Structures are given as C-alpha cells and as structure tokens.
From TrEMBL:
Tetramer of two alpha and two beta subunits. It comes from Sedimenticola selenatireducens. This is Glycine--tRNA ligase beta subunit. The gene is glyS. It catalyses: tRNA(Gly) + glycine + ATP = glycyl-tRNA(Gly) + AMP + diphosphate. NCBIfam families: glyS (TIGR00211). The keyword Glycoprotein does not apply.
Amino acid sequence: MADNFVGNEIGRPEGASQSADLLFELGTEELPPIALKKLSDSFTASFLEGLDRANLRHGAVKAYATPRRLALLIEDCQTAQPDSESQRRGPAVQAAFDAEGNPSKAAEGFARSCGTTVDQLERLTTDKGEWLVYQVSEQGKPAMTLLPSIAEEALNRLPIPKRMRWGSSEAQFVRPVQWMVFMLGDAIVPCQLLDTQAGNESRGHRFHHPDTITIESPRRYAEQLEQQGYILADFEMRREKIRLQVQQSAEAIGGHAEIDPDLLDEVTGLVEWPVPITAGFEVGFLEVPHEALISTMKKNQKYFHLVDHQGNLMNHFITIANIDSPKPELIKEGNERVVRPRLSDAMFFWRQDGKHTLDSRIDSLKTVLFQQKLGSMYDKSVRVAALASLIASMIEGDKALAEKAGMLSRCDLMSEMVLEFPEMQGIMGRYLAKRDGEADEVATALDEFYMPRFSGDKLPKTKTGIALSLAERLDTLVGIFGIGMKPTGDKDPFALRRAALGALRIMREHNLPVNLNQLLEAAAKLLADRQPAADTVDQVYGFMMDRLKGIYLDQQIAIDLFEAVAATRPESIADFDRRIQAVIAFRALPQAESLAAANKRIRNILKKSELPIASDVNPSLFESEQEQALYAGIDQKTLEISPLMEKFAYEQVLTSLATLREPVDAFFDQVMVMADDPAIRANRLALLNRLSALFLGVADISILQA
C-alpha cells in the first residue's frame, strides 16, 4: 500500500523511497468525442515519459476519459527523485604533481572548479593510468516541484490541430478548461496550468450532480465520481457497459444490434452516464436502400441500428442518453421526431432516382471532369470499360458484362442519393442497376468496383467485379503517371499508393493469370490520345513492385528473397507469389547456401565475358569428368523440370535442382573455367550459362544472402 505522506507541502520527505498515489484531472467543456480516446492515450504516454525522464518510479497506471475530463491515476509514485552520485575526472596524477609532490596549476584549477581543495580529491586507477577525481553527491528533487512541468509538457504535446482561447484568458486548449485536480497523496500539487489553479475538487454530472466533489484520495477518484457524481470515468468500462446495454435492448425486442466499433467509441465519448433508449420509425421507410438508412442513423444521429434474425434491417434503433430521465418516453419521442425528416429525405431521393435509369445518365458524365489532362468521367468510363473487357477475357469472365459494368460504373455519382450520401457510391449503383433490370453480376460489380476501399477491406468476388475494379486502378495509375503527377513524399492526391496496393491484392489473392506488363501497356494504349510519357509503363511497373515489396516485408519476407524473384520479372503477380513460396522452401534446404554461392560465382564469371556466350555446349571439348558430370546433370534436370515449370511447381523445381550441388561443387574444385584455349573457355562458359538458366527459370538465387 502506498504511503500517502508527502512531507512538507513541496519539501523533500525523509527517505527517498517514499511513494504516494498521484492523480491528475483536467476538467473541460465537452471534448471532441471522436478524438477523446486519442487525447487520453497521448496524455498518458507523455506524462509517463515525463516521469521516466525525471527518474520518478511508480506503480500501476490508470487513465480516465469522459466528455468533460481527462484524468490519470498513477499508483505508488515516488515523492522525490533518488539521490545520485556522479564523478568528475580531472588531470592525470602524473600531470597533477611535480617531482616534489606539489600540486600543479592543472590540479589546483580542477579543485577550484569543483569547489574544493586538491587534498580533498580522490584518485582513480584505470588500465590507462591514474587520475584525480571528484565525487559529486546530488540530492533528488521533490516530486512536488517536478510534476507541474511534467503535466504542462504532456498537455502541450496533445495532438490538437487547432487550439482555442476562452474569455479573457491567454491560455489555449482544445476546449475551455473549467477545473483541475492535481494531488500527490492527500496533498495538492501547487501549480497553475492553462490559467487554472490546481485543487482537489472535481465535478459530477452536468445535470445529475453539477456540484463539486472533494476527492478524498487519488485511489477513490473513480469510485467517488460514480457513487456521488453519476460519472463512469473509465472509458473502457463505459464502452463495455454501452455495448451490453445495446445488445440487451436489442434482444428485448427480438433483434440484434450490429455494433460498429468506431460508432461505439464515439458514443462512449459523448456520454458520462449512459442510459439506453429504444425507439423506432415507420415501416414504410424500409423501402429505401438500407445502407442509406443506416448511414443516416449512424453518422447524423449516433444511433445503433437493429436487424432481425435473418439480417434484415428493423424499423427500430437504440440511442444512448446521457441522463437517467424520469420520463424516458420523452427522450424516445424526441429522437424519433429528429430522425424522421432525415429518413424522409432519403426516401425522396430514392424515389427521384427511380425516375431515370443508369444508362440514361451516361451522357451526363461528359459534363464532369475527372482530370483536366485525362478528360471527363465519361472518357474514363470508356477506357475502364475497354480495359475491364480485356481483363475479363483473360480470367474467363464475360467481356460484354465487364464492358457494360465499366460504362455504368460512375453513373450513380449523378444520382440524388449519392450527392446527399457520398458514402453510398457503388452501393447505390448496385440498387439502381437491379431496379433497372440489369444482370445480377453487373449490379454486384458496380458495388465491387470500389473494393477494396481501404487496407484490409474485402475484395471483389465476381469476375466482372474483379475485372472492373482492377481496370479502374490500372487506368488511374497509368493516366496520372503519364501526365507526370506521380506521388512525391507524403503527397498523393490521387491515392495512387492505395490504388496500387488494391490492384496487387486483387491479382495476388485471386491468383489471376494476367500479365501485369501487358495490362499496363493496354492501359497506356487506351490513353494514347492523352500522350502519356514514353516511360510511363516502366514507371508504373516499378511503383507497383515497390508496393509489392512492402507487402512482403510486412509479412517478414526477407528483402533479398524478394529481389531474387523480382530479378526474373514474373509475368503475373500470382506467379510472383508462387516463386516467393518456392524460394522460401529452397532456402531451408541444406544445399541452398552452397548453390547460392555457386550461382553468384557463375553470374560474376559470365558478366566478365567480353564475347557473346554460345547457347550450345560441345561435349567433345570437355577435358575432365567433372565437366561431363555437370553436363549430364544439367541435361537430366532440363528434362525433369520442364513439365514442372509448365505446372508452376516451382518448389519441386528448386528441390530437384538442389541435387546438382555435388557436380557443381566438383566442377569448381577441379575445373579452370577461364582456360587458355579460347574454344574450351567458351564451351565452359556456355555450360555455366545453361546451369544459371535452370535456376533463373524460378529466381536469381545468386542474390540470396548467406
């Protein structure tokens, strides 16, 4: 148990090992709910860093955060820094005294700088000689004098984009500050921060207990706020209580709550004393696409929507009130009254959009600019449709459906619903296409067109959706690179990094048999009238390879392994991945290190050849059995791996080639490659070239590090 005695209010206690519980609470006007958890985490981390820098050890840490407060409880915090011992080294003894033993000017000067005399200095013997030294003892400072600056720095380092002033104060913070609690044990830490004097009085719920609450001790902080002030100060505890309240309320009316974690965090940041209220709306509104209704409830009203046991949206929702009202029905009616106009707007937009087909909106895309040098949304749709059709033919999809989906892909952007609810793009396309009687795969593809929307998001599943999504990203990459607007530093206004990562995921995870370079060439050809730069395809390919490298590095794949495969420039990303897996397996073989070294030696030898290397090997020029054995081994392996290469069985290929280790080692031990006879030398180089080509069929293993 911590000793809560702090000694004189800001004086040093007897004994440096004393500790006391520390409490800091900053009370404010309502903080931004989305940022609340981030602010709390940042403040906690910065405060603890400050304690570490001050060498104030402590025990368990607990952060608290509500709409009106950021708080921190630190158990068993030292009430003073420990005393410290340091040593100042002066001149060497040899230089510090003359032959008669009298101190030199250097010794006397060092002693004066230490505030002592030469005879009080000590000596330190090292392997490099003997030195005069002065031992310095420094008493640790009281925590009371250190804590204000630690708290101030932690507050200054909070991630607040824009700070505000209030009243006549010059202080700046994210919201006006109302009170501050700062206690070490039962004593107040004397300071003023943000124009607010530290004390031991907190405040309760704005309505249930607006009066002050005198904190008896730091460890009783959360308990007092809950019992006296109607405040659940613990963010995680409050979050879990809301989650359970929503679940139980949903079950009470036969529904299920689909709880969005981000919405749960935001609601947790809006209330201090959560009370669930179940409300509803007219069944007729369910005619509207459910995603629009859910978006309205979540984004605008912070409601939790409910679904039935079949997963269909119910005409009920749950809101979390910040007050335990004696008349909860009034809160229910108020929320129903507020949401009704928004749902009415959504229904109006849905019905208005039904008066026009997606097809009829294609021409309107000509009036919307995609990018000045790349034309309108209509121009982009035409290119994407053509490229999607090509991709569909490569993956055994329907070319006509892919082209149709490409032309319709942006039409929902012209709908009233998407203008009002931008997050409905794609989703609205699917609904409108179904309403228009388009093929199911086309309708689904219009939604899949945007997938993956973010890192880790699901991928398109239909072949039409895959072709469309991939075509969109490749057209954007080639187009933007072609006009010289590639990303620089952290600037990426067209989200090209995200586009590249999305395209790579689609090709890799769906194992698509598409030639990336061919697709980039096709995209560039479709953009020919826009005159893209001559090296655009190479630039985009390199950009995508850099992103692919990042993907593998994140999966703990060594960079040399990636480079070994990249050197062979595989046609497809799926093929790239198969080769990566094969080289991983090869690297685990006992022969791998020796063969990698041999291949590196071969590559160096071949690079030094001034004349072209022959493609054929003449066995009649062999002068040793080692040459003959290697030649026979290469011939055998060529026949053995040929069917394996056709089946992309790269792991089996490398496992088979690993058995060449003995003839390869014997060759280099007994044979001089660079023979004096030009014919023999050329023949041996041709033999090594054939050997190298076998491995290069999978990867350049000469790049692998030992």
